[in-house]
Amino acid sequence: MHGEIIAIGDELVSGRTINTTSSFAARKLFDAGYSIRRITVIGDYIPVIVECINAAILRSKFLIITGGLGPTADDITNEAVSKALGLPLEENTRILEKISECEERHNITYDETFKRKLSMLPKGAEVLNPDGHAAGYLLMQDGIPLFFLPGVPNQLENHILNQVIPRLKQMLGIGKSVMQKTFKIFGLSEIEVNARLSRIESRYSGLSIGYYPNFPEVHVTVTLKGESSEETRNSCYEACSAIRDTLGLYVIAEDENTLEAVTGRLLVRNNAMVSVAESCTGGLLGQRLTDVAGSSAWFERGVTTYTNRSKEEILGVPHDMLVRHGAVSSEVATSMAEGIRRLSGTEYSLSITGIAGPDGGTPEKPVGTVFIGMATPEKTAALRFHFPGSREKVRITATETALDWLRRHLTDGSYIPGYKPA
Amino acid sequence: MHGEIIAIGDELVSGRTINTTSSFAARKLFDAGYSIRRITVIGDYIPVIVECINAAILRSKFLIITGGLGPTADDITNEAVSKALGLPLEENTRILEKISECEERHNITYDETFKRKLSMLPKGAEVLNPDGHAAGYLLMQDGIPLFFLPGVPNQLENHILNQVIPRLKQMLGIGKSVMQKTFKIFGLSEIEVNARLSRIESRYSGLSIGYYPNFPEVHVTVTLKGESSEETRNSCYEACSAIRDTLGLYVIAEDENTLEAVTGRLLVRNNAMVSVAESCTGGLLGQRLTDVAGSSAWFERGVTTYTNRSKEEILGVPHDMLVRHGAVSSEVATSMAEGIRRLSGTEYSLSITGIAGPDGGTPEKPVGTVFIGMATPEKTAALRFHFPGSREKVRITATETALDWLRRHLTDGSYIPGYKPA
User: Quick check: A19 contacting B, CB < 8 Å?
Assistant: First the structure.
């Protein structure tokens, strides 16, 4: 049950907008058992749109065409469809009514060109969501469903989940069963992960194992496609166990889980809360923790002490220590972690102080130098790291490492491999 | 000078990984005057790779093929290239040397299959960056350059900037001049922006104007392509002025600028600093402000007072107030803004308290209810909002609105249109 996606828009083909919508559609379809074999991204140019639609119809069981349905001059999908399939454009009264409602609500009057553009659809188009705002529609061509969907992310997402997948199930039957498992790994490079797993890969040849760097993590997926016998299903489970055994604590999360959600669950299991004190990461650590719904059960507070003064005033970092060792030091990281733990009364706390760049480095502490502190009911420790890359990468790696340290500590009391406190 | 990108990888076509690398390549090439007419995303499947490469060569002046160059079993680009172009695979000694170095550094031994996979390149391949880690290479076919690049984002980015663009300039000459201007708008929907700009669009027909929702902003681009006469250049400048005049303060930033960077510059111009007190946004506001390099000149500190206790202890929010009005209230937002301003000694401060969801809503304060406070040298005020969408969207819109309020205030003292403090 292979389909294709054609994504239309100058903003996509010029790289100004990242094509997240095609990825969303492909992922949801894959999970439902319908896979996408090709995604073609083209600009707002009728001859190319016509060519792509005609070529894709010959190869696919279904087609999803996104973008170019809007009211502006660069929206030309309907005209292109009309040419490609030889279907005249006809006025859709349902859409005209919607526009009138919209005019009233926003208190504006659209000109006639605008209205015509939105309401003239290719003959035979079935509007997918007549009560909604955007005019996605379905056209059948020689038994092949062609879904034309708005390119705006939330509108497209609604159409995929509530219209496309249910209709594909009706028309093409339920997709073939697909088993897929994702392992998220932090602390090993793609090459290192591959070297450790290569023997497992050769042992279970019926499966496909993929390796995907996903900064700062490496994701490994195990995929089992088609009608699965009990035997293949069992070897999928076995391969997953073997991967877990081989990578151990380097596996930070599986499937839709995240490092922050896993850390949160470990805190709940330990009946404990965490607080954070940040400097160079500016709130990113707290933000990641509170991305998790329900984090108020285990996240108490965070402070971003960006200046020395704030480190002294809020966290009680001694003035002398800041002068003698500098704000980016093991001593200050330790003091920050202890300060926020004392203030918040949480069992655990994390601190980050470093030089994210692009400026501010010295020969002893170049850009990328980061100290991470952790205070626990037993003791406080700080580790020194040097993270490569841009300001953004340093900040992301620093928060990932801090979370990973806490996760490892809550799991078996271990440190980040290769790092020991001074 | 049109080219194409072919991106290879099951992870892309299944939607597990978002294709950011093709967007990066397209954008950088566009800026250098070489535009991309088509991006084709396909899986790790040799017949389709062969077909796509052969079809694209016939249409394009240059080709960029990304992904599938790695050492794992799913990396099959070299084999596909060999089939598509009829070129045998030959051993590249330079790459073998690199692998030996890597083995020593990581203290692992790769098996022979692995080494062969990385080192066997199609005959005639010129390795682009022989001293680098990844083996991107160039093949010339009938005068058309085919760049094969690693799919890993930072490796691809290096290759595009340091290899592909300089070599295209040598081979195809400098790209035609392109003028493009982007306006970032917050507070108006795409339809509202379009309605306000439609008259400008029709006045300057030589330009193309595009509208792109980019949550929570709408981006408008004005593009002038090809050899530009002084006349067309002038009309581009005129159209941009007309857009600025029409949209006024709804334009939050232009081109590569961001709302947070613009706000930072306004603070510097006012010789002022800002501090923030967050609750439901968990550090996102501080993180956005400190994303800006050099933000230590105008960002003093931030606190994330996630619990009531931390609001009382750090910010001095009165216990009675929390009990009487609840943590999500105009009173508490005001008290949080005043508390952090007093603590930090900054001229300005922002506070956010709300219900990001998915749980925690009540009939009076449903999920999405957010109070934003701002304290200035003159006074403190709080505004009540209701932001639609997911937890993530509520958090993003809340921080965007807080930043926008400060930006407007620093520009002309105004509020968010349509909102007035109680």
Answer: yes
Q: Where residue A134 falls among pLDDT bands split at 50, 70, 90? A: low
DSSP B262: H
**Inter-residue contact A15 to B24 (CB < 8 Å):** yes
Q: Does residue A305 have a pLDDT over 70?
A: yes
> Could you tell me if A46 lies within 8 Å of chain B, comparing CB atoms?
no
Report the Cα B7 to chain-centroid distance in Å. 20
Contact at CB, A304 and B286, closer than 8 angstroms: yes
Q: Which A residues in the span 158-187 are in contact with B, Cβ-Cβ below 8 Å? A: 182
Q: Smallest Cα–Cα separation from B10: which of A184, A197, A168, A220?
A: A220
Nearest to A361 by CA among B264, B302, B297, B293: B293
pLDDT at B422: 64
The angle formed by the CA atoms of residues A168, A174 and A180, to the nearest 5 degrees, is 110
Q: Closest by alpha carbon to A262, among A254, A273, A274, A272?
A: A254
Q: Give, as one character, the DSSP assignment of residue B164.
A: I
Question: What's at A110, amino acid-wise?
Answer: Y
Contacts of B407 (CB under 8 A, 6+ apart): B252, B259, B262, B263, B266
Q: Which domains does chain B have, with CATH numbers?
A: 2-172 (3.40.980.10), 179-254 (3.30.70.2860), 259-412 (3.90.950.20)
Helix or strand or coil: residue B373?
Answer: strand
- A226 has a chain B CB within 8 A of its CB: no
C-alpha torsion sign, points B188, B191, B194, B196? negative
Question: Degrees (nearest 5) of the Cα angle A123, A128, A133?
Answer: 105
- Residues in chain B within 8 Å Cβ distance of A12: 23, 39
Question: Are residues A212 and B306, on separate chains, in Cβ contact within 8 Å?
Answer: no
List, for residues A217-276, the tens digit of each pLDDT value. 999 988 876 556 777 778 888 889 999 999 999 999 999 899 999 999 999 999 999 999
Asked if the Cβ–Cβ distance from A290 to B300 is below 8 Å, we say no
Token pair belonging to A231: 């035997």
Q: Choose, out of B2, B18, B105, B165, the residue to mutate when testing the contact with A (most A CBs < 10 Å).
A: B18
Contact B71 A307 (CB under 8 A): no
Task: For residue A180, name the pLDDT band (cuts at 50, 70, 90).
Answer: confident
| Interchain contact, A194 vs B72, CB within 8 Å | yes
pLDDT digits (tens, 9 = 90+) for A137-163: 999 998 899 999 999 888 899 999 999
Q: Name the closest residue on chain A to residue B105, using Cα atoms.
A: A192
Report the residue of chain A nearest B299, measured CA to CA. Answer: A306
Chain A contact for B308 (CB, 8 A cutoff): no
Does the pLDDT at position A175 exceed 90? no
* Nearest-by-CA chain B residue for A255: B16
Point out the residue among B19, B211, B291 whose CB comes nearest to the CB of A19.
B19
d(C-alpha B402, C-alpha B386), whole Å: 13
What residues have CB less than 8 Å from B209, skipping those under 6 apart? A72, A73, A74, B197, B200, B201, B220, B221, B222, B223, B239
Q: In chain B, which residues have pLDDT < 50?
A: none
Amino acid (1-letter code) at residue B337: A
